[in-house]
Amino acid sequence: MKAEDILSRLTTQLKDPTGVRWNEIDLLEYITDGQRQVCLLVPKAYMVIESVKLAAGTEQTVPAGSSQFGAALVNMGSDGDTRGPAINESEFSDMNRFNPGWQTDPTSTVVTDFMFEYDNPLTYWVYPPVPSTPDVWIKIRTPKIPAVVTSPGALMNVNDLYLTPIYEYCMYRALSKDAQTKNTIEAENHRQRFFNALGLKVEADKGHRQRQRGGDE
């Protein structure tokens, strides 16, 4: 999906094909903000899997451009290309209870466990501690912050499933620019439809997961 897919829909709905009331720069800004609002509310809308080199020790920071930590998946050797053992998720409370000294245990070039806290979204921890040498790489999954949309031909970071909520957000922003009562009311309607569209998507995904598991969550 490209920005122009939303842009053409906006100019038609706003009845402003020549950009007199809402110029292209404004609308591209709304599209950028719309993508980011979607990803703020639904982080998986723009998820990336990448190899990262770990810092020495246990505490790690997500790569630049990430909005939060997702998961550690698999060891990738000392070169970032050699796939190794999978990495398990553990709980801080369990690790602290059963191995209080885990952060000062002997180092290893193979990570077995990862931990993270929801209230500290940019940081995660690995076990055993990582040595300063040789390099240790793992593959992680993280939600990303969408790039600024600078042209109609720019590719969107989220897929086509989120076209409608982004469109609704842009309409909300565009109509909020006008102080007329009619447009203010219509802007609020678009804002509500933005949240409704995302809510329906979240509920549909939840139902799909339940069906896969064969029961309720």
Structure, explained:
The chain is of the alpha+beta class. The protein has 2 domains: 3-44 and 148-213, no CATH class; 46-143, no CATH class. The chain is built from 5 helices and 7 strands, in the order ααββββαβββαα. The chain has helices at 3-13, 24-41, 92-98, 163-176, 181-213; strands spanning 47-53, 57-61, 71-75, 88-89, 113-116, 123-130, 137-143. A 4-stranded mixed sheet has the order 2-6-5-4, with no helix packed on it. α1 (3-13) crosses α2, α1 packs across α4 (163-176) and α2 (24-41) packs across α4. The longest helix has 33 residues, at 181-213. It is elongated. The chain starts with a helix and ends with a helix.
SSE diagram, text form:
Blueprint: H1 3-13, H2 24-41, E1 47-53, E2 57-61, E3 71-75, E4 88-89, H3 92-98, E5 113-116, E6 123-130, E7 137-143, H4 163-176, H5 181-213
Parallel strand pairs: 4-5
Antiparallel strand pairs: 1-7, 2-6, 3-7, 5-6
- How many extended strands? 7
Written as H for each helix and E for each strand, in order along the chain, the element string is: HHEEEEHEEEHH
Largest sheet: 4 strands, mixed
Radius of gyration: 22 Å
The chain-level mean pLDDT equals 90
Helix and strand content put the structural class at: alpha+beta
Q: How many H/I helical runs?
A: 5
| Portion in beta strands | 15-25%
Give the termini separation.
33 Å
Helix content: 25-40%
Strand order of the largest sheet: 2-6-5-4
